[in-house]
Amino acid sequence: MHTKRVLPLLAALFALAGGTAQAQTAIAPQSTDSVRVTSGAAYHVTAQEAFAIEQQYRLSNGQRLEIHQQENHFFGRLIDDREWQKKASVQIYPTGPGQFVSKKGATFVFSNDGEREHVTIDDAQLLPGLHVSTDMRSASNGGIRVVSR
């Protein structure tokens, strides 16, 4: 008889404890290593947009940015003319027309001046292999911006 009363009580306590643990997990602060990219509906890059941005860009710091698409995913990779080893590609996520963001928070804005595509990268220091001169580092207020030429 005693066991019949204890089992439902234990089940209720475990359910309550599990719900509390889930709630704590849901409100735990996110790591500063990454930015969560979420929206109600993901932006779909058109074939024309993809064709326009998928190329190499000469950047203001002397490096090149290569954008490529692989199975509906976009990637960016910094290239140094003196590199011996390829740098890692970073997946970039579309957030709007001509706008992308990396997992760590670097933002890419692509535009066209009528003659060619341009890119502006804010918080570029978050990209692997970025070369930054002392002048660029001292002129920045926390974030580094590089632009295509």
Automatic annotation (TrEMBL):
It comes from the Bacteria. Keywords: Signal. Residues 1-23 form the signal peptide. This is Gel scht.
